[in-house]
Amino acid sequence: MTDHRLAPDVEETAEAIASMEIRGAATIAAGAAEALATQAREIDADSPEAFRASMRAAARTLRETRPTAVSLPNALRYVLRRMGGRSVDALRESVTDAVEEFVAQLDRAQEDLGRVGANRLADGDTVMTHCHSTDALACIEAAVDQGKHIEAIVKETRPRNQGHITAEQLREAGVPVTLIVDSAARRYLNEADHVLVGADSIAADGGVINKIGTSGLAVNARERGVPIMTAAQTIKLHPETLTGHTVEIETRAEDEVIDRETREEIGDIAVENPAFDVTPPRYMDAIVTEHGQFPPESIVTLMRELFGEGAAEPWAEP
């Protein structure tokens, strides 16, 4: 009998991604890929068709957790498009091999990206950050490793305060940090030499989808004449936008913004909590990837080279 259930690790990983216990695009991508490997090892399939169906089901469960973070479906695409073989054992091996390759590439990509981004930072620079991005941190850490003195102005990034994580990790890297509230960004841009942000998705036109508040920061940086760059591995590129698909912006629970008691005291109000916004390419100076740095308008060329013009999603029902 074929076991159509999901491996417990798939369901646990999906919940951890949805709740943001697993956060950060590379971490999400690696977690999703490794959950597929667990599914491949643990499912009891009595035919290649049943194995493929089970893997697609696991991928769909993972895919639905965070609609804006494109690293997640890109990880699923990478693994499932390399799934092949005429027997269950062969299919299982192809999945586990693909996951191992994907995770190894992730590790190399961030190191390569960090070196590219570090070349844009000079000794003595002060960098303003928004939210928490391991890709952005890799650029600063690589610059420090090169012997450059870098200081950071870190926005706390409400409502979840991911900027606190950035501040902690920069201090561990020996970077002097000034933590500011989000609304103080314009004032402190006068003291910044660069703005450095990450991305959850990058559209074919070079638009950067990142933590809410990025777009306003980019507009202010452009007005102040402070260069702004996005650090993003190519797993952040959104291939569906090549065919006109728009990136879905995740809306999170209102209790991240206001607790129930306070809401009841205020009375009947609407609470909106969009997790991301879109920064038009004209406000971004460069997108830094493991393949080099690109003007935002040129990112479509890299996207076509990596993904082609689009194909049916590998987790879709046949």
From TrEMBL:
Organism of this sequence: Halorubrum cibi
Biological-process GO terms, alphabetical: L-methionine salvage from methylthioadenosine; pentose catabolic process
UniProt: substrate binding residues: 23-26, 66, 210-211, 236
More details: Reaction proceeds via a cis-phosphoenolate intermediate.
Catalytic activity: alpha-D-ribose 1,5-bisphosphate = D-ribulose 1,5-bisphosphate
SUPFAM superfamilies, sorted: NagB/RpiA/CoA transferase-like
Protein name, as recorded: Ribose 1,5-bisphosphate isomerase
Entry superkingdom: Archaea
Catalytic residue list: 131, 200
